[in-house]
Amino acid sequence: MNNLLTMDEAAKYLGISKLTLYGWVSARKLSYVKIGRLVKFKQNQLDAWIDQHTIRARRDNHGTH
Questions:
Q1: How many CB atoms are located within 10 Å of the residue 58 CB?
Q2: pTM recorded for the entire structure
Q3: Total domains, the chain
C-alpha cells in the first residue's frame, strides 16, 4: 500500500521547512492528494520527485590523483 504523508511528515521526509513545502504546494511543484481540506503526499511520488531532481555525478575523464 502507498503511504500518505501529512504536511509535517512530508516536510521532515524532504528535509525542508513546512513553510517551504506550503510554497511548493501553492506553486504546484509537487504532486499531492487533496482529501477535503487536508493535503497529503504519496511517499512514492516524493521519492520520484527526489530522483528527478537528483544531480548525477560527472565521470572524471582525466583520471584520479
A1: 6
A2: 0.79
A3: 1
